[in-house]
Design a protein that fits this description.
Layout (H helix, E strand, L loop, with lengths): L2 H7 L40 H13 L4 E5 L2 H9 L7 E5 L4 H11 L5 E5 L4 H7 L4 E7 L11 H11 L3 E5 L4 H4 L9 E5 L13 E5 L2 H14 L5 H11 L2 H20 L4 E5 L9 H7 L6 E6 L4 H10 L4 E2 L9 E3 L11 H7 L6 E4 L5 H12 L2
Bound molecules: pyridoxal-5'-phosphate.
The site of pyridoxal-5'-phosphate has 16 residues, from helix 3 and helix 4.
Length: 381
């Protein structure tokens, strides 16, 4: 089965009692048993719910994984992954990372004795020299936020396997499985904030972990049962419904992104455009190899590199909504220096390229010409 068919059908069967094509939203906390422990596969809804199962099978199909487990948020999914480790274990992570992940690693798990290093994973020598005997997990996020750098998943997973017994995990939120399937590139674990492209309509928070490593997934199932950061059935339904059009939405978003990138790269007020699809992008070839297309996230810096100019652009758009998050049908515009990366000191963020006028776009599925015009008039205000 090809991806577009899987997005509709993977693991999906009509409901047994009625033939309903879409899974019912099973609003129940518990399940009747015939005799103690004799039940139909479900005993308590923290552990499992049929609506959640339908979603898990669908995401497993899209990520070419044997199993998937869903969570109440993306960070809850990451939390469960880190809880499979022990004090003294080392995690090697990318340094250009979703802020919430960085906060979870350094403020929750570091105090419990798990060690983290943050390195530039576009530099494979740095990856090689940072792997230690105690490294049990390598954490990749690609493309990165907000600078859209691309990490070679296959190369990092290869190095990791040769030098340690660590698992390689990829936060695949920015690309979505339509554009990038980390397990096929040699990663062991893939994680999603289903809040973003999978849900796709900015109406739900959720997370997922998928893998074919049975021992690892057993630990994740144990986390679900024991820590209980589970999604409700209605949330699972919304994400499942969103996934049915994932391929259509992402494809259109990418087309629109390319139109926006064309305008930005030729605009006299724009200093630099960050987009893996540009031939001048430092990891363009890696992106072309490991992604089906270059995504719908775009960042750019203005020649007038000031917060005032950036604010003028962001308040001037009529279609782009000024908001955090990404991956929905509507186009969003945001300002990393004051929003997502506001807590990082100016010298530190500027060193990695997050300057005052950097603007991040999540391109949606509106009309491309409208998006281009909207952004252009805001830049020229
Ligand atoms: C949003 C996001 C998360 C966190 O997910 P939530 O659903 O907001 O908890 C993790 N990683 C990336 C790359 C994200 O964009």
């Amino acid at each position: 089965m090809k991806f577009n068919t899987k997005a509709i059908h993977a693991g999906q069967e009509p409901e047994k009692t009625s033939g309903a094509v879409m899974p019912p939203v099973f609003h129940t906390s518990t399940y009747a048993q015939k005799s103690p422990n004799e039940h139909q596969g479900y005993d308590y809804a923290r552990v499992g719910n049929p609506t959640r199962t339908a979603l898990e099978k669908l995401i497993a199909g899209l990520e070419e994984a044997d199993e998937c487990a869903c969570f109440g948020s993306g960070v809850a999914a990451i939390d469960a992954i880190i809880k499979t480790l022990k004090p003294g274990d080392h995690v090697l992570s990318t340094n250009d990372l979703y802020g919430g992940t960085y906060r979870l690693f350094t403020q929750v798990f570091e105090p419990y004795g798990i060690e983290f290093s943050f390195v530039d994973m576009t530099n494979l020598e740095e990856v090689q020299s940072s792997l230690k005997e105690s490294t049990k997990l390598v954490w990749i996020e690609t493309p990165t936020n907000p600078l859209l750098r691309v990490i070679d998943i296959e190369a990092v997973a290869d190095l990791t396997r040769k030098k340690s017994d660590a698992l390689t995990a990829v936060d695949n939120t920015f690309a979505s499985p339509y554009l990038q399937q980390p397990l096929l590139l040699g990663a062991d674990v893939v994680m999603h904030s289903t809040t973003k492209y999978l849900g796709g309509h900015s109406d739900v928070i959720g997370g997922a972990v998928a893998s074919s490593n049975e021992e690892f997934m057993e630990k994740i199932r144990f986390q679900i049962k024991t820590s209980g950061a589970v999604p409700g059935p209605m949330d699972c339904y919304l994400i499942l419904r969103g996934i049915k059009t994932l391929h259509l939405r992402v494809q259109r978003s990418v087309e629109n992104a390319k139109a926006v990138v064309d305008m930005l790269t030729s605009h006299p007020d724009v200093d630099h455009v960050f987009y893996p699809g540009l031939k001048t992008h430092a990891q363009h070839e890696t992106a072309a190899r490991q992604m089906k297309d270059f995504g719908a996230m775009v960042s750019f810096r203005l020649k007038d590199d000031t917060i005032e100019k950036a604010k003028q652009v962001m308040s001037g758009t009529k279609i782009f909504t000024l908001a955090e998050s990404l991956g929905g049908v509507e186009s969003l515009i945001s300002h990393p220096a004051s929003m997502t990366h506001g807590s990082i000191p100016k010298e530190v963020r500027e060193k990695v390229g997050i300057t005052d006028s950097l603007i991040r776009l999540s391109i949606g599925v509106e009309d491309a010409e409208d998006l281009v015009e909207d952004l252009k008039q805001a830049i020229e205000l």
